[in-house]
Design brief:
Layout (H helix, E strand, L loop, with lengths): L1 E3 L8 H8 L1 E7 L2 E7 L2 E6 L2 E8 L4 H7 L3 E6 L5 H7 L9 H5 L3 E5 L2 E4 L4 E12 L10 H5 L7 E12 L1
Antiparallel strand pairs: 1-10, 2-3, 2-6, 4-5, 5-10, 6-9, 7-8, 9-10
Bound molecules: flavin mononucleotide (FMN).
Flavin mononucleotide (FMN) binds next to β3, β5 and α2.
């Protein structure tokens, strides 16, 4: 992996997140959790390159994101689709997802964890958190489609501090 700058990030971000999916990982080498996410965005805000992720509070990963200043977004080639499906359907509460999916954790820096198999890793430092509110939805049709069981997402916007690519 070599560190690249935001200027050299050539992926189509909409497809990268929405179609390739990503692992959101928070914690450190001795205690971390990871989950698959396909909702999010990247852009420019408050004078910084940022990534925004949407995490439901019932995710085991939520607690790790809460207690960490940083998290990583890890992107993989198609051959890891099965591993990402597993990390998006099992919970770290009762499953050793890393073992079951066969991916190899490593710490690119002491405060974060990613996976050796990732082709692109983005380390993000949390800037802002909010909880989506029903009354703020302009298109109310989104609510019954995505939130019939309640539990709206927490939204984290974070500064993109490091990017590593293969
Ligand atoms: C393709 C895919 C995309 C997902 N995207 C998100 C997401 O953006 N936000 C979220 O909260 N959960 C998302 N999930 C669900 C979590 O990955 C899933 O609930 C996971 O088991 C949580 O693991 P954890 O309990 O170990 O954190 C997604 C699942 C899949 C399969």
């Amino acid at each position: 992996m070599k560190e690249i700058s935001v200027d050299n990030l050539s992926d189509n971000i909409i497809n990268l997140i929405g179609k390739d999916w990503m692992l959101v990982t928070a914690g450190n080498a001795s205690s971390f959790n990871t989950m698959t996410a396909s909702w999010g965005s990247m852009g420019f805000l408050w004078g910084k390159p940022v990534a925004t992720i949407f995490i439901r509070p019932q995710r085991h990963t939520y607690g790790f994101i809460e207690s960490s200043d940083v998290f990583t977004l890890s992107f993989f080639s198609e051959e890891y689709r099965k591993a990402l499906t597993l990390c998006g359907t099992k919970s770290g509460r009762d499953t050793d997802k890393v073992k079951e999916s066969g991916i190899t954790p490593y710490a690119p820096m002491s405060d974060c964890v990613s996976f050796e198999e990732a082709r692109l890793v983005i380390r993000c430092r949390k800037l802002y958190k909010s909880l989506l509110k029903e009354e703020n939805f302009i298109d109310k049709g989104i609510l019954p489609k995505w939130y019939k069981d309640g539990d709206l997402h927490y939204v984290y916007t974070a500064e993109i501090e490091q990017i590593w690519a293969k």
